[in-house]
Amino acid sequence: MKLYEYEGIKLFEREGIPVPRHALASTPEEVVQKVQEIGLPAMIKAQVMTGGRYLAGGVKFANTLEEAAKAAKQVLGLTIKGLPVEKVMIAPKIESAREFYIGITVDEYHGMPVAIISQEGGISINKIAQERPEMLVSRSVPISSGLSESDARRMCREVGLSGKDFIEISRMLFALYKVFRNYDALLAEINPIVRTVEGNYVALDSKVEIDDSSMFRHADLGLDVKSHIINPLERRGKEIGVSYVELDGDIGIIASGAGLGMASMDIVSGRLKPANFLETGGAITADLLYKVMELVLQKPGIKALFINVYGGINPIHEGAKGVVKYLQEHHVTIPVVAKALGNHQEETWDIFEKAGVYVIKDVSTEKGIEYIAHILGEHA
Length: 380
Prior knowledge:
Layout: H1 5-14, E1 23-25, H2 28-38, E2 42-46, E3 59-62, H3 65-76, E4 79-80, E5 83-84, E6 88-92, E7 96-107, E8 112-118, H4 125-131, E9 136-140, H5 149-158, H6 163-182, E10 185-196, E11 201-203, E12 207-210, H7 232-240, E13 243-246, E14 251-255, H8 258-271, E15 276-279, H9 286-296, E16 304-311, H10 316-330, E17 336-342, H11 345-354, E18 358-360, H12 365-376
Parallel strand pairs: 14-16, 16-17, 17-18
Antiparallel strand pairs: 1-6, 2-3, 2-6, 4-5, 7-8, 7-10, 8-9, 10-11, 10-12, 13-15
Helix pairs in contact: 2-3, 5-6, 7-9, 8-12, 9-10, 10-11
């Protein structure tokens, strides 16, 4: 689950990372009130879960209350990368003498955390990583031992920091790793850390993503998982208890497990374009599959639907009843192909076939995709 900037900053504060005074507002009137409390000059930042806010006009500065009100109206009226700005964060405008970057993320290839530090930060960090990789230092972090204070100091020394920069950035890197571990994060990033003209060090932004499956351990954070899912179809998937990810294609996919779903998506991608990833988990019912059909077919432009279910612990014949009920009630006209194997497979085949669903009775998923491609006239 991705956190808003203001939520990530709260975690930073818990671990002793210095952050600016800040407040939230959702109307221009509230912005003016909070600016009066925090003081001028002020910074007004859009709170949306995407990067590129500065370049999109989502960060404004105000030297007067009139400028603050004007900036608030501008920012609260924005849509950034498809996300409407409903809240802004107000903080003091900070004069920067130097910017740094630190981050902890997961190296999926090696299956372990990796710590990253750059002696430069800011909106051009990706360009720096590509064009001047010598400016960055990264280090794999064994999950058993973690990132120690000496590890953090070693990384800062390797990247060329010295003096107070060395002391403060190493301390903040160590604290950031504690945020990463203590809150089961997949990503914890500060871009930038600012050394102010007064010589203070402040985390001027936050990017934190927490593993969804760990949220039961963090009830004290008071985070509503559903409210953090921006995509309405993905949010609906969470509500009905399935894993749904929207993709760019037009072939809907329903699978009864994550592995089966990924394999189906890969095979579809060989000839066509998957519209989604969806896996039902191990609790299939007629009602669940009815809701899943409704979810998948809500996406505009679906040309065909591929259902790939296995009857191990799942009662796939019950799921088939829900699929057929939806097809009949909504008069679905697109091709629907189902591969159903395992317990109750003959009963499942019969339910599907009587409703006009094309059934694959072979273990080969490719045959189902070939049939869809043939029906759609899109031969590879």
